[in-house]
Amino acid sequence: MTNTTPFTLDGMSWDDVVETFDLMDDWEDRYRFIIDLGRKLPALPDDAYDDAHKVRGCQSQVWMLFDRTDGDRIDIRGDSDAHIVKGLIALLLLIYSGRSAAEIRATDARNQFQALDLEGHLSAQRANGLFAMVQRINDTAAAQPAN
Amino acid sequence: MEGSVLPDQARGESGAVAGDFDAHAYRADFPVLGETMHGKPLVFLDTAASAQKPQAVIDAVNGAYGSGYANIHRGIYKLSQDATDAYEAARDAVRELLNAAEREEIVFVRGATEGINLVAQSWGRTFLAPGDQIVLTEIEHHSNIVPWQLLRDQIGVEIKVAPVDDSGQVDLDAFTALLGPKTKLVAMPHVSNSIGTVLPVETMIALAHDAGAKVLIDGCQAVPHQPVDVRALDADFYVFSAHKLYGPTGIGALYAKRALLEAMPPYHGGGDMIATVTFEKTTWNDLPYKFEAGTPHIAGGIGFKAAIDYVQAIGLDRIEAHVDALRRYGEQRLAGINSIRQIGTAEARAGILSFVMEGTHPHDVGTILDRAGVAVRCGHHCAQPTMDRFGVPGTVRASFGLYNTEQDVDALVDGLAKVAEIFG
Questions:
Q1: What is the ipTM of this complex?
Q2: Record: contact B371-A28, CB cut-off 8 A
Q3: Domain carrying residue B40
Q4: Where is each Fe-S metabolism associated domain found (chain A) (predicted)?
Q5: Strands B40-41, B36-37: parallel, antiparallel or unpaired by DSSP?
Q6: Phi-psi region for residue B83, left (φ > 0), alpha (ψ -120 to 50) or beta?
Q7: Which one, out of A22, A36, B94, B306, has a CA that is 20 to 30 A from the CA of B340?
Q8: In sequence order, which ranges of B101-179 are alpha helices (DSSP H)?
């Protein structure tokens, strides 16, 4: 990542996550870590759990919220009824949330996930719907006027 | 097929009890089952979605393309005629498998889904009228819901749904109460794909016939694991897919009584389904070709026959007993895990175990099981109304095939213990 993302979870940035992942060679530990990250995400406002915020293409239910703040930064929030998917959302937020539309457009989640050896989760056909979430993020960024 | 790895014929013909069912020996016929997943030996428990293929089927498909391939039905040369014979032999095999009266009553389709759409669009649009009623059950696969909704939106028929009780079995009183003079069709699964209930189809068909309705049975989950006799059942339409019967994808069969097929107009137009064509008028080919437009799935048909030969050699009654024994063993083992709640507890059930695990989403369970080398299906299983009925977003489904063993069940239980530990 070229810029430092303002978004952190418990003080942990994306780079911290990559570093922590490097220290774990057991898949169980990695999933535990992802699940814990998901648990750190706050719940969305009650009225966000509706069809408009639902991301299609996920076997579990996924909701995402986008807020334009601080000029051109896009804050992203998300939730899922599945623990692991919620953890994957946390990872996406660490990559994308709080960045400008231009930064989001220039970021390829596939490269980021490669660093975690998780890129397999990103194929269009995977049932976790991560691909659909990345698409929703990119669509939102694309809809923002360029600076 | 020569040189195919058929199981021990003598044992297959003896109709022996499940006790001497040597699933370990049959496993060796399925190359995929020797593979690993995430470095773990593959434990395949998703046969209800699609079954693995024995070498005999793989060889038959390879042979169809490798040594005997030509377009069928029209070629004057030997290669084409041999391919035609091989393909048509599959029709005879399906007829025998279902104990249908005539080979003309077997229509090849892409799969059960196409078979149901064919009946909806050809028979339904011709013989149903606005206000007529179609009765479904609460435990349908989407493939036996959506084609009828399309028909409803086209011609104004009504859809009624027969409820199931808390065990997942159809409530026969409620079903009977839905039947009346307006009921023109009952469409239902023989075995529920999502929770494994075996429906009392014989009784339900008789009740439907008493009301003057025709009956379509979705036999996808029944045909691979139990003997089926469409004449004994007196089914009007019966559909299933080859790929769930250890055969190729892209082909399946629709059985229908001859009189029905004769009265039905073609579903698709094109080559093979015609007798004569002019720009003014076209006449239809004989049954069953009237419903088989275009070049068919030739290699698929040939593989389909190999699959039927394979299960027949083992014995469907023996396969039924085996998957039933595995399901019972699985239930016993799952009962030892407190956080598990089984969905679908009807007395009559096939080799399908559907469950949820407290504090987890089925997707979580499936992801961890995947890493443990255990392939199960997680989600709504294309049966969202069934999930709604039981108030769950989805389930974890382990489904058994002839190649599964008690060790596979043990691997599932070990994997679930890991899930409990991780999410605990």
A1: 0.85
A2: yes
A3: 8-45+315-423
A4: 18-138
A5: antiparallel
A6: alpha
A7: A36
A8: 112-118, 125-127, 146-155, 172-178
A2 is a domain residue: no
Q: Which of B266, B286, B312 is the last residue of a domain?
A: B312
Do B252 and B111 form a contact (C-beta atoms < 8 A)?
yes
Asked if A60 and B360 come within 8 Å (Cβ–Cβ), the reply is no
Residue B384: C-alpha distances to residues A59, B193, B357, B380 (Å): 12, 12, 18, 5
**pTM for the predicted model, two decimal places:** 0.91
**Dihedral over alpha carbons A120, A122, A124, A130 (to 10 degrees):** 130
Nearest CB to A60; choose among B38, B361, B422: B361
Domain ranges, residue A42 = 14-142
What's the Cα-to-Cα distance from B236 to each of B74, B199, B222, B290, rounded to whole Å? Answer: 31, 16, 16, 18
* Domains in chain A, number: 1
Q: What's the CATH number where A122 sits?
A: 3.90.1010.10
* Tens-digit pLDDT string for chain B (424 aa): 333 333 333 333 333 334 689 999 999 999 999 999 989 999 999 999 999 999 999 999 999 999 999 999 988 999 999 999 999 999 999 999 999 999 999 999 999 999 999 999 999 999 999 999 999 999 999 999 999 999 999 999 999 999 999 999 999 999 999 999 999 999 999 999 999 999 999 999 999 999 999 999 999 999 999 999 999 999 999 999 999 999 999 999 999 999 999 999 999 999 889 999 999 999 999 999 999 999 999 999 999 999 999 999 999 999 999 999 999 999 999 999 999 999 999 999 999 999 999 999 999 999 999 989 999 999 888 999 999 999 998 999 999 999 999 999 999 999 999 999 998 7
With respect to residue B70, please indicate whether it lies within any of the assigned structural domains: yes
Residue B133 near residue B157, CB atoms below 8 Å: yes
Tell me A54's DSSP state.
B
CB contact under 8 A, A82 and B422: no
Domain final residue pick, B312, B333, B349: B312
Confirm whether B382 is a catalytic residue: yes
> Of A35, A59, A83, which has the smallest distance from its Cβ to B378's Cβ?
A59
> Does B1 reside within a domain?
no
